[in-house]
Amino acid sequence: MTTPQPGSRKPIIVTWQGTNRTSIEQVRLFVSDGRLRASGRLIVASGTPYSASFEFTAARSGDVGRGLLRTTAADTERSISLGRTEDGMWLMDDGNGASARNEFDGAVDVDVAGSVTFTALPIRRLGLHRKPAEVELPVLYVSMPDLAVTLVRQTYRTVSITDTGAIINYTDAHRSADIVVDKDGLPVTYPDAAQRL
After folding, report:
1. CA spacing 20 to 30 A to 61: which of 20, 21, 30, 179?
2. What are the φ/ψ torsions at residue 77 (nearest 5 degrees)?
3. Residues 70-84: what's their mean pLDDT?
């Protein structure tokens, strides 16, 4: 599989299959001059079935700039847009006239429940797949399929760097997992979550 290189202008498609539930996620990644644009879809068939689509951009620094999430379940359709201003404030709009403004303790990362794509963003931004480090981050966490946004703390730690990428330990209040990533920081294996196809 071809993966993005710094300064690359050729988009790639990455697909993950769920391992602890019936799901599939596919994302189109476009990297140009250090900026990243992700456009993807997540389909969950087990439990409470739903589908979700997302579009997010990350600046050259790796900070999430803005994004749009939509979910469809049997009885509901929801959407939310998120945008981070230059002064560090997050603007949120649910499309129904309800909007909010919050600093979220300086968070620059977004994590979406059940999505592997968003796991890669802080790993890539901090270069944890290239230079060993450990960081604890404030993160905007978007639950699915209700799209509720909360502030969580997540820790990322480089376990090892290999010829093919790295192993990154991810820890939050509910779980810890050693994620295998490729040389571009994109997950290959996420234990009890997903496997790249």
Report:
1. 179
2. -130, 130
3. 95
Question: Which amino acid is it at 105?
Answer: D
Question: Which of 194, 197, 196 has its CA nearest to residue 23?
Answer: 194
Average pLDDT value for residue range 150-175: 96
Strand partners, 81: 68, 93
Give residue 60's Cα distance to chain centre: 16
pTM beyond 0.70, yes or no: yes
The token pair at 35 is 């900026």
Contacts of 59 (CB under 8 A, 6+ apart): 35, 65
Q: Give pLDDT, residue 168.
A: 98
pLDDT at 13: 96
Instruction: Quote the tokens at residue 1.
Output: 């599989």
